[in-house]
Amino acid sequence: MKIASFNVNSLRARLNILLEWIENESPDIFCLQETKVPDRAFPKKDFEKMGYSIVFRGEKNFNGVAILSKISFEDTNYGFEDGSESDRLIFVRITKINVINTYVPQGFHPLSEKFREKLDWLQRLYYFFKERFNPQMPIIWTGDFNIAPESRDVYNPDLLRGHVGFHPDEHAVLKKFKDWGFIDLFRLHNPESRQYSFWDYTIKNAVKKGMGWRIDHIWATKMIAEKSVRAWIDVKPRLLPKPSDH
Asked: Which of 128, 134, 142 is nearest to 6 (CA)?
């Protein structure tokens, strides 16, 4: 089974890039973030033609998550227990595997209210996992976490330490998920690699200069991690004309 995740940064703007990548790579499950499209305008038929079932939630210009699957969904859920944050959290069960797709708030600035809201959101997600699942279950958690976990996950840790996305408060919250039972699959299979998944539009030639962040992740519980064979970051779509910044 091949599982992929991509912050598309506007689905309609990046649709051709996405469809071409699917044609070439043929993932069984594909999680998308920041689709920025209301449900009524989601290009569902384009993916159905390629053999995918789709669940999605979104709004115009902001947020939005979707899961595409070649395998039928056994269960689908949107948002937290009260239904809130459905455009940032969507989860399904496929062949008894729980797949959780998240678009974590960015946080803006460490001194801002939005940063507090980001930490609160992650804390809420942590308790969501604790209350709904257990680490002995087959679980895949993926998406744009908006956090680079380690120094090798940013291009200049000394410069960026303390910034949003590479802040000790974020790392402290993220550690709770690891302590609960999640394993970073990319780091499992690439223990020494320095690769990135996000490159700021404002930095010219950021990809070629290696000025990136690894903030997009696929984590899993032990049951899944032990069966995984490979994890990698495909940079090619970022080098195309009018790409996402991920």
From this structure: 142
Looking at residue 175, which CATH number applies to its domain? 3.60.10.10
Number of domains in the chain: 1
Distance from chain centroid for Cα 187: 15
Point out the catalytic residue in the list 144, 153, 184, 216.
144
The reply to whether 144 belongs to the active site is yes
Claim: this prediction has a pTM higher than 0.90: yes
pLDDT grade for 44, boundaries at 50, 70 and 90: very high
Catalytic residue among 103, 153, 155, 184: 103
Mean pLDDT of 29-42: 98
